[in-house]
Write a structure and sequence with these properties.
heterotrimer; A mainly alpha; B mainly alpha; C alpha/beta; A: 5 helices; elongated; B: 2 helices; 77% helix; 0% strand
């Protein structure tokens, strides 16, 4: 996550997902933003907070096998640049989605619910908590 | 060949390439249509 | 040394490539799980009630990325890995799950094996003397060094190695990897600090872990970072108690074969003296291949071997043999001879292997024929510089030091790793390609190992092939 170009790629992929939803004529702009926000948060929740271990064998005798990707990031150092970036993006997406849905009540419930889904596990107090 | 290499389709099986290309075509046509309607 | 940065657009395309592969990997896993697809993988009986043996996610990468292109690795050869060799052709009918031999072989130029001085030969003085050693001593001693596994040949080998690297005494082991992993635990233990380069070989990492010492890594070949870490950890002392460290051991390699970089030894020696640390130098790749007399990175930099506390190296890459050695003061070596796991549990080095080392080492030292050793060393040094310079002129991004006998050429995209290996082999050049997780995700590369056995004509042929393949795959990213 901290290697060169990863953050740009991440933003491009989120923009691409949004563009795919915008390209579906039967979806309104508001719905496209809410879908982008919710699906992004669900994917990131699975990738960062559900998946454990590494997708390849490592030489650490399984030390990180039961740690989530988020807990393994930057060797567990809290508030590293990558962690800050991965925390800020969902928040910005939430603001954008709220703005484009004109703060509609139903959209707000889905958007805020999915935002909490990805923010709460990122709290340092929940590091390693199951 | 460059397209296959850059998108890593070079490593995928033929059915996977078909799925990817169909998705890409679908997305591009949708984008074109929506852009047209929007404009 | 040059480490040109990855172009941003290429980095992004590389991530996208990996992203597409991961998406299709998950789709494939899903279809295999519901038996839509043929699943050749070993599967456990779920109701057996035992703890599952395999953590499926851990082999995700092997199953879905590596498997697709694994024909580019572990290629069987049917000749000696010399300047050219013969590769046994294989075919797969199920996309990399299984292979079968086609019965044909492919002759290719060998730039994948470690054969720096061209001693991988099955004829000539070394081969004859190894054969005589086999007839005289037999193929193995079938015993450890602590018991009956000591031969006069081993004593001759160890005294020759000590003379070759310029130290008081040396001990030889039958396996290079074990020389690191089994001896570091005899040198340091609890209450000690190990400062290890972040790109050190896994045998060093395993040995450091087995020792129980506190391990800290510093940035690759970065002496400022090393000094800062030395300073901080000495000030902090041991964790929790802050007691001073019993020992501090700095572990570096002479040549980093994945990067093609050479350690800044004078700097490291200055720091070790300044902070009263010990220095462990792993010369696996540099011994025999670097320096005007082939004595390794100490010879290359013109340093005094006495300044390096523990000189380690292997006989695999430059001597056409196998095994490793540790050299240093007599007191140290006697201690290791007593305490090493290898000396106690592993059977001693096989006599023909030992003889191969003695013969090739004498050639390098010019004992019988002063000219041959110089010729091989000179040829390797010239090949390395010439090959690297020409590749850079062509526009490839090449990593590492101009004198390194290993030349990494950056490929970046995952598909280009396989395409490069296959296209080169199609044209008669065999080389090694390396990708994530052995390298950073956006730094996949092809690694060329030069040899003193390569002639200029062979090098030019290889350069033509690489130029052609590089144009086809558009790999000339250097700016």
């Amino acid at each position: 996550f901290s290697s060169r170009g990863m953050w740009v790629t991440y933003i491009l992929v989120v923009a691409f997902i949004h563009y795919v939803f915008l390209s579906l004529p039967f979806l309104s702009v508001a719905m496209a933003w809410t879908l982008t926000n919710v699906i992004h948060n669900m994917l990131m929740f699975i990738i960062l907070h559900i998946e454990k271990g590494t997708p390849f064998e490592t030489a650490d005798q399984g030390k990180f096998r039961y740690r989530t990707v988020w807990e393994q990031l930057d060797y567990g150092i809290q508030f590293s640049p990558s962690r800050k970036f991965l925390t800020i993006v969902p928040i910005i997406l939430f603001f954008l989605a709220s703005f484009y849905t004109k703060y509609d009540y139903y959209h707000f419930v889905f958007n805020s619910g999915s935002l909490l889904l990805v923010l709460i596990p990122k709290l340092p107090q929940l590091d390693g908590v199951r | 060949y460059q397209y296959l290499l850059i998108t890593a389709l070079y490593m995928l099986e033929s059915w996977e390439r078909t799925v990817f290309n169909c998705f890409l075509l679908f997305f591009l046509s949708m984008a074109t249509y929506t852009a047209y309607v929007f404009m | 040394e040059s480490f040109e940065e990855t172009p941003l657009i290429i980095a992004i395309l590389t991530y996208l490539g990996y992203g597409i592969l991961i998406v299709f990997g998950h789709i494939g896993d899903f279809l295999r799980k519901w038996n839509v697809f043929y699943n050749p993988l070993v599967t456990e009986k779920v109701e057996s009630g035992f703890v599952p043996l395999y953590q499926s996610f851990e082999s995700f990468y092997t199953r879905n990325l590596y498997r697709r292109i694994r024909d580019c690795w572990n290629r069987p050869i049917s000749s000696v890995p010399g300047a050219t060799f013969e590769i046994i052709d294989r075919k797969t009918s199920d996309r990399g799950w299984t292979f079968h031999f086609t019965g044909t072989t492919t002759k290719a130029l060998n730039m994948g094996s470690y054969n720096y001085l061209g001693f991988a030969e099955n004829k000539g003085r070394c081969a004859d003397e190894s054969q005589q050693a086999t007839e005289l001593y037999g193929p193995s001693t079938c015993s450890t060094r602590h018991e009956l596994g000591n031969l006069s040949l081993h004593k001759e080998l160890e005294s020759l190695v000590a003379e070759f690297i310029g130290v008081e005494s040396a001990i030889a082991f039958g396996m290079g990897f074990a020389t690191n992993s089994m001896n570091i635990p005899t040198l340091v233990g609890k209450g000690c600090l190990i400062l290890s380069d972040e790109l050190n070989h896994s045998s060093l990492i395993l040995g450091a872990r087995l020792s129980g010492a506190v391990i800290k890594t510093f940035k690759h070949n970065n002496m400022e970072d090393l000094e800062e870490k030395l300073k901080n950890y000495i000030i902090d002392g041991q964790p929790h108690t802050h007691r001073p460290w019993k020992k501090i051991l700095i572990i570096v390699e002479g040549v980093y074969s994945m990067e093609g970089s050479i350690v800044k030894l004078p700097e490291v020696i200055r720091l070790k003296k300044k902070y009263k640390a010990y220095l462990y130098l792993d010369e696996a790749h540099s011994i025999g291949a670097l320096g005007p007399r082939g004595r390794g990175v100490v010879d290359y930099w013109g340093c005094d071997p006495k300044n390096v506390d523990i000189m380690m190296g292997t006989f695999t890459k430059s001597f056409g043999s196998a095994g490793g050695y540790i050299g240093g003061s007599k007191k140290l070596i006697d201690f290791i001879r007593l305490k090493s796991h290898s000396a106690c549990y592993a059977s001693s080095m096989s006599p023909p292997v030992a003889q191969q080392i003695i013969s090739s080492m004498k050639v390098i030292m010019g004992v019988n024929d002063p000219a041959e050793g110089k010729k091989r060393l000179g040829q390797l040094a010239w090949n390395s510089r010439y090959f690297r310079r020409r590749l850079q002129e062509m526009g490839f991004i090449i990593y590492g030091n101009i004198d390194s006998p290993v030349v990494p050429l950056l490929l970046f995209c995952p598909a280009k790793i396989a395409a490069f290996s296959r296209e080169c082999l199609k044209r008669g050049l065999a080389t090694v390609v390396v990708g994530f997780p052995a390298t950073p995700i956006i730094e996949s590369r092809a690694r060329f190992c030069l040899s003193g056995a390569h002639t200029k004509e062979m090098i030019d042929t290889a350069l033509e092939i690489i130029d052609d393949v590089g144009s086809l795959l558009s790999l000339k990213y250097s700016r």
